[in-house]
């Protein structure tokens, strides 16, 4: 039997695959995702400077060109691209050159499973283990930080990388545990009892509880958009803990000990310049975007907003396109509002000491996240044994979480206040006595 495929038939199949809606959707999603990844760092850098300037009663970059100095980001990109690439003579050159690639690769890979709208999404968004995939990729950054510090043959870089590794590993655990409560909610609310989900689309869908009323105005506003059922109302404490761990994972203030310029010059980045330094810079702001995007999907309903579900449900090319643009706009708005909190925290809180940072992770965040898992499971078992509906379980868990938020803030404030006074007393005792 001749199983050879004629060349003409093979060419027609390839042409048919290229000229199709699926291929067009893939190309649009790929282009939009790459543009978002590459431009997000420049935009966040500019917003970082302007927002901090506003909070500190300054003007910020304004003389570079354009309204409000918007061309500052373009000037920064040009400077980094044209800057001389300096390599330390005594460094491990292969490891030194690979470190920026290892650091930025997980950032790009994470967007393969993060959809931007119902239509603008890469094939990887259908991955059933999307949440685990993103968390696993984030742990690779530790390798990049270690490679950068060790290969630079610089004591400041090495100390900075050791600090960064200890910090990232410590906060990786409560970060992951804070998401277990959301997975438990999906297993309870899922149509298949006891079977949860860790796919971003499915988690977002479970936060939509709207039933069609056949009233056009209400259906247009609330179809796919039910903010009263977002998981942030049920697990607010886990949102705070996840976001705090996200600050530590991205080495942002007050967890920027790995790059403490007053102590370590620039930490593991000391010997990097030009494009290679820009890759670390891009990775840091990319991680900020990823942390904010995960918060949106798990706690804030993803791209849900007024009009999105209704317009896409019309199955019209025109209105479906409008609905996807609305979804993209809502998601970006939520992401950049959360990124604004990153900048706000940086401009507000001072840098923690190393002992405070590690103590907060192991003695505060770890017990709280483990306690949330135990309490959520016990409440469900009790409610289920009594025969009450899931709504009662959600109300009880939400009430306990909001009470725990108050207790967590109070505990953190008292702990910080006590540690500050202890450090001040030790500093006063260490001062030399004045000459008489």
Q: What's the average pLDDT? A: 84
How many helices?
Answer: 16
Oligomeric state of this protein: single chain
Instruction: List the helices and strands in order.
Output: HHHHHHHHHHHHHHHH
Radius of gyration: 25 Å
Integer count of domains: 1
Rough outline: globular
Give the percentage of residues in beta strands.
under 5%
**What is the CA–CA distance across the termini?**
108 Å
Low-confidence stretches: none
Helix content: 55-70%
Instruction: Profile the largest sheet.
Output: none
* Structural class by SSE content: mainly alpha
Strand tally: 0
Structure description:
This protein is an all-alpha fold. The protein has one domain (29-411). It is 69% helix and 0% strand. The chain contains 16 helices and no strands. The longest helix is centred in the C-terminal third of the chain and has 41 residues, at 390-430. It is globular and about 70 Å long. 38% of the residues are buried.
Question: What can be said about this structure in brief?
Answer:
It is an enzyme of class 7 (translocase). It catalyses: a quinone + NADH + 5 H(+)(in) = a quinol + NAD(+) + 4 H(+)(out). This protein is mainly α.
Secondary-structure map:
Elements (H helix, E strand, L loop, with lengths): L6 H12 L2 H35 L16 H11 L10 H18 L19 H9 L2 H11 L3 H35 L10 H6 L10 H7 L13 H14 L11 H4 L9 H26 L8 H5 L4 H32 L5 H33 L3 H41 L6
